[in-house]
Amino acid sequence: MREENGARSLNVQTLATDLLKTGLSDSRLSYLLDNIPEMVFIKDIEGRYSYMNAAAFACLGHEVDFIQGRQLTIFDMAPPDVARRIDAMDSQIMATGQGLYDAEERVAKDGHVRWYSGTRIPIRNDRGDVIGLAGISRDITAAKWQETLRRSHAALLEMIVHGEPLPNILEAIVTTVENLLDNLTGSILLVEQDRLRTGAAQSLPQSYTSVIDGLEIGPMVGSCGTAAWRRDAVYVSDTFQDPLWKDFVEIAMRHGLRSCWSTPIMGNNGVLLGTFALYSGMVREPSAIEKEIIEMATNIAGIAIDRRRIEERVHYMAHHDPLTGLSNRNVFWTQFRRAIHEAKRENRLVAITYIDLDNFKQINDLYGHAAGDEVLRNLAARITGCIRASDIAVRLGGDEFAIIFSNPRHDEHGIMRRLESIRERAAEPIALENSSITVTCSSGTAFYPGDGETPEALLAKADAAMYEAKKNGRNTVRVFEQCFGAGI
């Protein structure tokens, strides 16, 4: 490394010496330096520039003839914060005599960030005294952003692969973008029932997020609501003036949110999943780099949301009956055992009811299986409408249903009232495509702990009570103890 740095030092030192000797009288050397992309400069021990090529002038925002024989320092040519940083770095080099090689520097100006890599070395006279400084620097912004984006992209994908909770991933996406860019604040909104709900907006004021949470999707609803409506990016450079923000301009002013760029998050098959937005305190459009970062963020968010929806769908299908939406047999025993375990611990009452449609085979034979499916869907909906949130309705298969009643009190009468309601509702006409049909159901119920202490024993007794209901005319509600007596 020392030899490599020595070689670089020699090259810059040689160039600086040549420039000092020729005073740029050699037009060929001047032409060469003014037509290379690297920035080349020389300054004396007082920090005054004796030479800058065209690229260096352009970097600082000046024309080539800006100096015009004047002895200017960096404070005459750059913003104060940038000038102080550069002056401190160069003063350190000339004070210590130690060069700086391939040093990277991040410079933010007017909301835009650029990266530079440069070599700066002291210039010495024949006695070895430091008499100035020479430097060569190049713009590495494009390469730096690509490297940073690749690294950020990989880190976020790793969170998805490892199954991190979706809220954590969405917050990480917003935080990553905010760290990459200066003076920008992000948010992710998720589509829920034709509205946008906050998925991640940890840096925005709570008073603002409470307003946008539940935002409508529409053609004139700020940046996010409109982007979701159009399914295309909406870049509002001035929220105070843009008609899309007329209903939100007051709160935008209150929080200094001057521009807002929103992009729809799209999933598989063109499904709208949400929006990703960036807010700035300045009136401006996003730069090309910012658009690239926005694209990365929306793509990652889309992958994360899509994956979570698929996982939720698979979990739902594994635990629910696809026809009725009720819990299925796969989870029935787990739910039943949990209810009994909690009842033992808290001295609760648990009831299990077995429900079976009367003469369901005739319905399929006379009206077809499509009509039979409609009957099952209607019965499931009517059962759900008659029970409490703490009760669990299950389709065991075919036309067989079960209900687990878990009660904080010994409320047998309340359970019987709900079962009578189910029986009455089940007998109401069900509309078919060109007609209607009326069906009935029979049910049998067993109670924990009086009728048994295990799920298997209780379900067997509820089944037995249900068959008693069938034998005694159908369309009735029966309880095991009433049918067979206690202790049987």
TrEMBL record:
Q: Which NCBIfam families match?
A: GGDEF (TIGR00254), sensory_box (TIGR00229)
Residue span(s) of domain PAS: 25-97
What's the protein here called?
Diguanylate cyclase
Q: Which PANTHER family match?
A: DIGUANYLATE CYCLASE DGCT-RELATED, GGDEF DOMAIN-CONTAINING PROTEIN
Query: What organism is listed for this UniProt entry?
Result: Agrobacterium bohemicum
- Which PROSITE patterns does this UniProt record tie to the protein? GGDEF, PAC, PAS
In the record, what terms sit under GO molecular function? catalytic activity
GGDEF domain boundaries: 348-482
Q: Where is the PAC domain?
A: 99-152
Which residue ranges run through the membrane? none
